[in-house]
Design a protein that fits this description.
By secondary structure, the chain is mainly α. The chain has seven helices and two strands, in the order E-H-H-H-H-H-H-H-E. Strands 1-2 form a two-stranded parallel ribbon. Helix 3 packs across helix 7. 38% of the residues are buried.
Length: 286
């Protein structure tokens, strides 16, 4: 079993190994396969077909497996490398350590949002964007969205999600008025803020993080490592509140065939959510 560390506690050598492994995956083409997968399985409420990665109860188990697959790919390149996490309730400014020049680089420049610093800057020759909705080959960020400002979620925002007594509820989409999954995933409900928690982080970083192919920005993995940790915290706080829906939805339910219950295998790995309720024995968080 290995440990996922808070990004601010990584040593300089650990940052170098993580960055080097990510760049090697990019060079080999394996990184872009993860980007394409996330784009394929980002299926909004109004679209046809099954919804597994977002706006659905399987948001947490699907991303747990997704990040774990990426982590295993990193470890095949550089044994011992793990995916650190970014606690955005604490490290919530552009001066935070994850945006340093020797780690993820900083914000995009004003005129075109192009990231000019760090190992993932296009001009460094190691990071070109070829998967997604943009015609530009460079990584983009737009911290805080100055034209229509947003702030990163606070500890109070996170606590609101952690206090939810149930995991999810009908209609099992982005319109659920309560429940841990949707309050944390962060879709607008009940006249509250338009974006919360997970979604608000994507919008604060901006640029390519604000798209279905958000793994184009390596900060995606640090964000979702923290998402995974938060799920673990909620489970410990509510030990009697399990995953919902527990059983396959009946044929008369409008979400039947679109939403996966506890023991219905999720694509693309054909793994049940029930097999992903815990990470014990695989990794721990510091």
């Amino acid at each position: 079993m290995y440990t996922r560390k808070n990004q601010k506690h990584l040593t300089a050598a650990e940052r170098r190994r993580f960055v080097g492994a990510v760049i090697e995956l990019k060079r080999s083409g394996r990184y872009d396969a993860f980007v394409r997968m996330h784009g394929e399985y980002y299926v909004p409420d109004g679209s046809r077909g099954p919804r597994v990665a977002h706006m659905a109860p399987t948001f947490f188990p699907w991303h747990r497996r997704f990040v774990l697959e990426f982590e295993r790919a990193l470890q095949a390149v550089a044994p011992g490398v793990t995916v650190p996490y970014w606690d955005w309730t604490v490290d919530n400014t552009p001066a935070a350590s994850l945006w340093s020049d020797d780690f993820l680089g900083g914000n995009g420049r004003r005129e075109d949002q192009q990231v000019m610093t760090g190992p993932f800057a296009y001009r460094g020759g190691h990071w070109d964007i070829s998967v997604g909705v943009t015609d530009e080959p460079f990584l983009t960020r737009n911290f805080g969205r100055p034209a229509d400002p947003v702030a990163l979620p606070t500890g109070a925002d996170l606590d609101l999600a952690l206090k939810q007594p149930v995991y999810d509820a009908s209609p099992w989409d982005s319109t659920v008025s309560g429940g841990f999954r949707n309050v944390f995933e962060g879709w607008s409900v009940g006249g509250g803020p338009r974006w919360r928690n997970h979604n608000l982080v994507h919008r604060w970083v901006g640029g390519l993080m604000n798209s279905a192919t958000s793994p184009n920005d390596p900060v995606f993995w640090l964000h979702h490592s923290f998402v995974d940790l938060v799920w673990d915290r909620w489970q410990k706080a509510h030990p009697r509140a399990g995953f919902e829906p527990r059983r396959k939805l009946p044929a008369g339910d409008r979400q039947s065939g679109r939403v996966y219950s506890l023991d219905e295998p999720m694509p693309p790995w054909n793994v049940r959510p029930s097999a992903l309720m815990s990470h014990q024995g695989i990794y721990r968080y510091e």
